[in-house]
Amino acid sequence: MWQEQTQEQVTQHYNARRLWQDPRIEAKLLPYTLLSTQAHLRMLGDCHLIDPDAASALCDSVAGLREQVSNGQNFLEKDDEDILFAVQRHIEETVGSHTDAVRLFLNPREQLAIDMRLWMRDALREIGTRITELRRTILAIAEEQIEVMLPTYVHFKKSRSIALSDFWLTYESRFARDFKRLDEIRKKLETIPLTETVQLSSGKVIEKERVGQYLGFYTIVENNLDATTDRDYLLEFSAFASILCVHVSQLASDLMTWSTQEFGFVRQTRPFYFQHHEVSQKKNQEILGVLRSRPSAVFGRMQESFATMKGLSVNYSQDFEECVPSVMDSADHTNFLIELLIAYLPNLEFDIDALKDASNPVIISGESAIEFLVARQVDRKKAEKAVEDLIHYCKERHKQPSDMTMNEWSQFSMAFDSGIYDAIANSEMEQASSHNSEYLHLDVRRKVMENIQSAHLLIEDDMTTLSAPDLHL
């Protein structure tokens, strides 16, 4: 008897159980295993494969376990071979009979495939909800900063200025595309991995599609081998999570650059920076560092999943389960990064004066003027000093460099000639704003507001797709 085995044998059995399912993965899948088991038992009763009254009692017993799990209780014991063994033990304790029904006409590979889809369905809904919340957060910031200008950079050289709101709308658009990718995966999960109806020699019928109906699935997979070995949705999720994390890392990188002393566009507030233990005035960008670097863990997990699946035969192999931990880790990392962004972004403080100064068309033209002088063999430091004086001259007189006469240019350097007008022309033509006042042209402001409103409407539409499926248990 199992109960009479030595502690060493118990330990060996316990460890053998871990060969096919990690404890953390087992804990994540436990609610879904109970859910699919309850649906299976109800199908057996409805199809009169077991007594309907007995099936009802078994379903109630499993429902009790689901309630325990939802309350944080754990009914698994180390002696249990697997979750279904624990369910059978519980049924024997509560119902006293029909314990074998738990495994009757049940393919464990099919059940695992169902459980994974049930988990994935909830994981996608959770991540999708957080993505929409992040998009709303970004739009709120965009609305607050619609009057603020931001310089853009090409190869780290200043280029045209844009509305800061356009920057935020850029990232909102990227996360909106991420949501669409998530939604495509979610739609594919509406199919349950169960084969068609089977008629037994006794004349009774196993109507497996009923299980899907109870669990809120719409169709079944007709091909038995594909039903148990398909892991495309896990690979697609890994790719989706990696692309989303690329966007998170890019946003963090931009904010990290802006918060440096050299730029000074952004200030981090408590509790989102950490003071250096030796230099108290030094504020370390730990949060941005995590947001920028943590996505690499998701990329690595994606590679792990694809490497596991590569070259596998279409026939079932234990290898098919080895990508499950990777995908679940990716889901955890993705949720964490989105939550961190949602908390972090509203607490950023933007230095409007620094942004205003950096976006000044005069300053951007000055960059071109410096390069013009350096190309004419003027020492860079002297060129920078000359252009600094020139910019101060323009600001005081509220004029653009292109409006200056050659005599005015010559006051700052004799190396300036008529070619300077062509050199600065592109810089000034690219500016979308008027330098003198606050600042956006009405058409530009109106367009930004229209884009923000359109984004809000799209979020509302996306939210309607996240409703939980109806369960009929």
Structure keywords:
disordered N terminus, two-stranded parallel sheet, 3 domains, Fumarase C, Chain B, domain 1, 473 residues, Ribonucleotide Reductase Protein R1, domain 1, Fumarase C, Chain A, domain 2, mainly alpha
Walk me through the topology.
Layout: H1 7-17, H2 23-46, H3 52-70, H4 83-94, H5 108-144, E1 149-154, E2 157-163, H6 164-188, E3 191-192, E4 198-199, E5 205-206, H7 209-215, E6 219-220, H8 224-229, H9 232-258, E7 266-267, E8 274-275, E9 283-284, H10 286-293, H11 295-309, H12 324-344, E10 349-350, H13 352-358, H14 361-375, H15 380-397, H16 406-410, H17 420-429, H18 442-464
Parallel strand pairs: 3-6
Antiparallel strand pairs: 1-2, 4-5, 7-10, 8-9
Helix pairs in contact: 2-3, 2-5, 2-7, 3-4, 5-6, 5-12, 5-18, 6-9, 6-18, 9-10, 9-11, 9-12, 11-12, 14-15, 14-17
Helical proportion? Answer: 55-70%
Would you identify the CATH architecture of the largest domain?
Up-down Bundle
The share of residues in extended strands comes to: 5-15%
Instruction: Write the CATH homologous superfamily of the largest domain.
Output: Fumarase/aspartase (Central domain)
End-to-end distance, in Å?
Answer: 36 Å
Q: Within the CATH hierarchy, at the fold level, what is the topology of the largest domain?
A: Fumarase C, Chain A, domain 2
**Mean of all residue-level pLDDT scores:** 84
* Oligomeric state of the chains in view: single chain
Gyration radius (Cα, Å) is 31 Å
User: Largest sheet at a glance?
Assistant: 2 strands, antiparallel
Which stretches are poorly predicted, pLDDT < 50 over at least 5 residues? 1-15, 428-439
How do the helices and strands follow one another from N- to C-terminus? Answer: HHHHHEEHEEEHEHHEEEHHHEHHHHHH
Number of strands: 10
Provide the structure class. Answer: mainly alpha
Gross morphology is elongated
